[in-house]
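User: Here's a structure from my thesis project, written as structure tokens. My advisor, Dr. K., wants to see whether a designed sequence matches the one we expressed. Can you design one independently, without my sequence as a hint?
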């Protein structure tokens, strides 16, 4: 996994962060919250070679930007004066933050630092990140994860038609209404609206159900031909999730909340999921993703991405069991070159690094956090 990656390290000179609120084009209503704007944290990491690595993450709440930034600045200070590869930096910082706990905001800070270091490394090699990881830019199968939240069936039918104008051949519907009847009505409204088209429909419950209710609703939903059933119950109840996966015919999907590769290993060896979905900011950045991809490959489990599609395109290119890219357009509001969709696929950027470059004119129009 590391043979194709240069062992040359980097010396970090400085880091800057800034948080912005990005309004969503499609409101996202889930069983947990209604989201109309998302807080994003942007990172610029300058090394002694004069190369600036860039990365960003969704930080869930505006206060998350402050917490993540604090840990990130501390992490950079710990690396000052050291010549380190991303792998070495990851190991060093994991030890330094062990007593505090490498989870939550700490994990996300270290992941962002890792992503920025990998971006800089690829820029220094004048190669796309995917190539530095031993693969190369590819066209990736993706599903549209914007919108389709909890709303009236007629509104869902209208919104899915608007989403399909992007050209992707799959969408994700959020469920978790008070009753199974309402869940089915919502799903059927979407299905009817795309009748005649070869569209895959994923379902996400955002951990809304009890294990017993998940069995009840899952048995009915699998009759509707959904592609997967995502996070129906508490994400870290691996035993109950494994029982659910055995009970249902429809594949169970979890993973976006897995904290590091070790959590992924526990989940898959428990049989908690038929598929896995990894969030680059929670799994440990690019370095953590590579470990996770190895685990998924060894277990023969297909692996999808969660959010941050710009960097995730590169990572899926280097993932042996790559499955689906989760597509959102949130970063269109902050980058110079948004991802391109062509022939129903998302194209991996071919420019050096991760392909992320900030559009300062766009950023000036966003509220700072």
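Assistant: Designed independently from the structure alone:
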């Amino acid at each position: 996994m590391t043979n194709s990656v240069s062992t040359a390290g980097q010396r970090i000179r400085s880091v800057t962060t800034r948080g912005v609120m990005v309004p969503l084009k499609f409101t996202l209503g889930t069983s947990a919250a209604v989201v109309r704007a998302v807080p994003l944290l942007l990172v610029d990491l300058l090394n002694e070679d004069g190369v600036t690595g860039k990365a960003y993450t969704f930080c869930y709440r505006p206060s998350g930007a402050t917490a993540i930034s604090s840990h990130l600045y501390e992490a950079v200070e710990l690396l000052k004066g050291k010549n380190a590869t991303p792998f070495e930096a990851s190991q060093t910082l994991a030890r330094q933050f062990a007593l505090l706990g490498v989870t939550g905001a700490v994990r996300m800070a270290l992941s962002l630092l890792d992503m920025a270091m990998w971006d800089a490394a690829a820029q220094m090699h004048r190669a796309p990140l995917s190539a530095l990881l031993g693969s190369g830019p590819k066209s990736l199968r993706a599903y549209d994860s914007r919108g389709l939240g909890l709303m009236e069936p007629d509104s869902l039918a209208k919104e899915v038609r608007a989403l399909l104008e992007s050209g992707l051949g799959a969408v994700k519907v959020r469920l978790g209404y008070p009753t199974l009847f309402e869940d089915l009505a919502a799903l059927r409204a979407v299905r009817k609206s795309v009748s005649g088209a070869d569209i895959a429909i994923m379902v996400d419950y955002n951990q809304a159900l009890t294990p017993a209710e998940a069995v009840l609703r899952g048995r009915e939903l699998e009759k509707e031909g959904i592609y997967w059933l995502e996070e129906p119950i508490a994400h870290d109840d691996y035993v109950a999730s494994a029982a659910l996966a055995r009970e249902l015919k429809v594949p169970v999907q979890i993973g976006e909340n897995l904290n590091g590769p070790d959590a992924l290993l526990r989940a898959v060896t428990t049989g908690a999921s038929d598929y896995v979905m990894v969030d680059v900011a929670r799994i440990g950045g690019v370095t953590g993703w590579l470990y996770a991809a190895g685990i998924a490959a060894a277990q023969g489990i297909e692996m999808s991405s969660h959010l941050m599609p710009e960097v995730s395109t590169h990572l899926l290119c280097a993932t042996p069991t790559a499955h689906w890219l989760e597509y959102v357009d949130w970063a269109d509001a902050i980058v110079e070159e948004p991802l391109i969709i062509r022939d129903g696929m998302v194209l991996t950027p071919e420019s050096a690094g991760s392909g992320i470059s900030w559009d300062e004119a766009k950023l000036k129009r966003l509220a700072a956090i």
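When you compare it with your expressed construct, this may help: The radius of gyration is 20 Å.
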